Each structure stands twice: as C-alpha cells, then as structure tokens.
C-alpha cells in the first residue's frame, strides 16, 4: 500500500495543481462522450490506452466485459448503461475485450469454477461466445491460445448484441444518436482490433485508419 499512498500525495502536490481548472469544472458535473465497457482485469487502463482525461470516458468494468441482456431484474450494469445513455447522453459505446482474459478462460472451462459459484453464473452470459466458436471451428482443431483469442473476440460480438436489448440503447441507436464499437486490446503489443460488422471480423487499427474512424464516429 505504501506506493499507493505516496501516489496520492504526488497527485495532490504535483499533478492536481497543473490541472486545477479542469478539476474545478468537473466538480460541478460530467459530460462524457463515450461509455467504455471493459474487463475488471488490473492490466487494463482505459484512460491510458485511449489517452483521455478525467471526464471524457464513463467507464464500466466487470469480469469479462459482460453485458447481461435486458430484463426486469435491475443490476449494476443495467443501471449504469441506462444512466450513461439516457441521463448523460453519451454518443458512443465501446465494448473492449482484451488478450489473456481470465474470465474467458473460465467461460471455456466452467468445470474449473466449482469453488466460484457467482463467477460461474456470471460467465453464463458468455456461453453463446464459447458455443459459437465451438460450432465454427471445432475446439479440437485449435491450440489453446487460438481458441482463447476467438472466444475473446466472439464475446465482444455477443455483448454488442446484448446491449442492443437495453431499451435506452435501442432507442438511441434507432435515432442515430448512439454508435456501438467492439474492440479487443492486446496487452503485450498495445494493438487494438475493431469489429467490422460488414465483414463480421476484427481488424487492427492502423495510423491510416484513425481519420476514417474519426469521421465514422461523428
């Protein structure tokens, strides 16, 4: 804990003074453009990866960047999504998976989760991803890394489908006020792959694509 406490002191003494005006403005409210849904994995830092400042991303995190399909049973993800879209008025939603995802390893091997009943139940929301990969590719034909990578990608695709069932999101998509984006972040290389719905595949974001993506996101 020592380095965390010293980090707080450094923030207050060195970082905050140079950004005091921005924090004073944020003290009175927030106006994020993006709802960023990602995994709770400690290796993922959305602001670092996107080089954004406080107030720019409304971040929701959980094991496996999962979005349960909408139901009448209220949960933290459901409430957060509704708030971000209907109250804050975000215009983009990014669902970001990542390499070496422990949650997806668990989804592939649920038998190993007998001592974690709540985790096992939660990962049931990723079962479609594991079944789709199994049907498309046949697990016996894949090595472990390839299998995991495909499940990570397919899980993002399925969560994109789940979020469309949320009424606030569906309404904004129908009127063109919200756009969805599926990402997979590679921890080792820093590569980001984005989901192309037209081709049903993920492709790396290259420097030459940034301007095009920016125009599409407006």
From TrEMBL:
GO terms for molecular function: carbonate dehydratase activity; zinc ion binding. It catalyses: hydrogencarbonate + H(+) = CO2 + H2O. GO terms for biological process: carbon utilization. Transmembrane segments: none annotated. Its EC number is 4.2.1.1. Its cofactor is Zn(2+). Keywords: Lyase, Metal-binding, Zinc. Pfam families: Pro_CA. Belongs to the beta-class carbonic anhydrase family. This is Carbonic anhydrase. It comes from Pseudoalteromonas agarivorans. The lineage of its organism: Bacteria, Pseudomonadati, Pseudomonadota, Gammaproteobacteria, Alteromonadales.
């Amino acid at each position: 804990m020592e380095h965390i406490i010293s980090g707080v002191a450094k923030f207050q003494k060195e970082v905050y003074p140079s950004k005091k005006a921005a924090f004073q403005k944020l003290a009175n409210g927030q106006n994020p453009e993006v709802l960023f849904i990602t995994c709770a994995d400690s290796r993922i830092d959305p602001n670092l990866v996107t080089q954004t400042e406080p107030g720019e991303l409304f971040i929701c995190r959980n094991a496996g960047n999962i979005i349960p399909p909408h139901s009448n049973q209220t949960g933290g993800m459901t409430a957060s999504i509704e708030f971000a879209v209907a109250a804050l008025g975000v215009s983009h939603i990014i669902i970001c998976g990542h390499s070496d995802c422990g949650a997806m390893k668990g989804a592939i091997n649920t038998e190993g989760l007998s001592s974690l009943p709540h985790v096992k139940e939660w990962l049931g929301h990723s079962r479609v991803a594991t079944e789709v990969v199994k049907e498309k590719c046949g697990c016996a034909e894949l090595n472990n890394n390839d299998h995991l990578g495909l499940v990570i990608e397919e899980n993002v695709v399925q969560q994109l489908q789940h979020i469309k069932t949320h009424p606030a999101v569906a309404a904004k998509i129908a009127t063109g006020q919200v756009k969805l984006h599926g990402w997979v972040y590679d921890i080792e290389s820093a590569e980001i792959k984005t989901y192309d719905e037209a081709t049903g595949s993920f492709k790396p974001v290259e420097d030459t694509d940034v301007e095009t993506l920016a125009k599409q996101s407006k």
